[in-house]
């Protein structure tokens, strides 16, 4: 069963879709992307689970992002909590890609009782401006502001060259380039240039799967760092993939996540029934 809807919550409208039934999995896209980036995951996982995808505030079909960069991630996390309440979901597995992985980390830190397990892919955990990651993130934020108003046709050739081996990822990137919201992308990029979860992750008790494509040594380094800070994490490298690995190698990504879900749902305490929902 597919449900498309818009939820009015937290002073904004949030576009979302739900598929299937069972234990809930919420997929969280990266900044500048939309729920469409999870197309290869929807049919696969909705056969066994309730799959929820949405457009984060400031992206896709959802409300305009008006918050300052300091509040962006907190507000986007609260939106997800309120969406869970609207759907009657007490706990969910969260799968975050790229900057969506930062949202998932914040969810585990701020709302641990709502997170059953988490998958963090092609992401990082700290980007203080004193680090290389932070400097790159700040530069990317400013470049996104400048390039946001440039015709998409000027940037597509370089994207086509970079993603020549991964046509599915390129096609979604091309669509995002043409539908981009530059002011809000700029705010979100600035927000991610200021995060540091390195100390907070040590208190996270949920099981975590860290996934990264092996194309970029730096991306692998960042995800190794995330896995090292999380007490109950495992790291999986996907060969011949870059960010986003779920689009570069969708079948392998799905299989890796499915194995993790099988293991974690088997280990759930007997007093916490599968698919637990509010009011039950």
What labels describe this entry?
280 residues; 10 helices; disordered C terminus; 18% strand; alpha/beta
Care to give the gist of this entry?
The chain has 280 residues and is of the alpha/beta class. It has helices at residues 39-46, 72-87, 100-110, 132-147, 152-162, 167-178, 182-192, 217-229, 245-248, 250-266, and strands at residues 2-9, 12-19, 24-28, 50-54, 92-97, 115-121, 208-213, 233-238.
- Written as H for each helix and E for each strand, in order along the chain, the element string is EEEHEHEHEHHHHEHEHH
Which stretches of 5+ consecutive residues score pLDDT under 50?
269-280
Give the helix tally: 10
Instruction: Give the assembly state of these chains.
Output: single chain
Ends distance = 21 Å
Helix content: 40-55%
Question: What is the averaged pLDDT score?
Answer: 88
Rg, nearest Å: 18 Å
Largest sheet: 8 strands, mixed
Percentage of residues in strands:
15-25%
Strand order, biggest sheet? 1-2-4-3-5-6-7-8
> What structural class is derived from the secondary structure elements?
alpha/beta
Shape: globular
Q: How would you explain this protein's 3D organization?
A:
This protein has 10 helices and 8 strands. It has an 8-stranded mixed beta sheet with strand order 1-2-4-3-5-6-7-8, with helices on both faces. Helix 2 packs across helix 3 and helix 5 runs antiparallel to helix 6. The C terminus is likely disordered.
């Amino acid at each position: 069963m597919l449900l498309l809807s818009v939820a009015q919550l937290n002073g904004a409208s949030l576009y979302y879709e739900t598929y299937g039934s069972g234990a809930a999995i919420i997929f969280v896209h990266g900044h500048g992307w939309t729920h469409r980036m999870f197309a290869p995951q929807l049919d696969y996982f909705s056969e066994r689970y309730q799959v929820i995808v949405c457009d984060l505030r400031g992206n896709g079909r959802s409300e305009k992002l008006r918050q300052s960069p300091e509040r962006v991630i907190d507000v986007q996390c609260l939106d997800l909590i309120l969406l869970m309440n609207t759907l009657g979901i007490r706990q969910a597995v969260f799968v975050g890609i790229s900057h969506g992985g930062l949202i998932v980390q914040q969810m585990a830190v701020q709302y641990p009782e709502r997170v059953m397990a988490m998958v963090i892919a092609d992401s990082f955990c700290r980007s203080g401006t004193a680090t290389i990651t932070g400097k790159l993130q700040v530069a990317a934020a400013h470049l996104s502001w400048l390039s946001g108003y440039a015709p998409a046709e000027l940037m597509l050739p370089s994207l086509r060259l970079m993603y020549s081996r991964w046509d599915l990822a390129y096609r979604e990137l091309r669509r995002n380039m043409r539908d981009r919201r530059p002011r809000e992308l700029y705010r979100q990029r600035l927000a991610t240039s200021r995060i540091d979860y390195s100390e907070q992750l040590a208190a996270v008790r949920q099981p975590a799967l860290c996934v990264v494509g092996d194309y970029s040594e730096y991306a692998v380094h960042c995800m190794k760092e995330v896995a090292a800070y999380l007490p109950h994490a495992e790291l999986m490298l996907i060969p011949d993939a870059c960010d986003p690995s779920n689009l570069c190698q969708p079948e392998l990504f799905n299989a890796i996540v499915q194995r993790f879900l099988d293991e974690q749902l088997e280990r759930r305490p007997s007093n916490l029934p599968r698919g637990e929902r509010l009011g039950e």
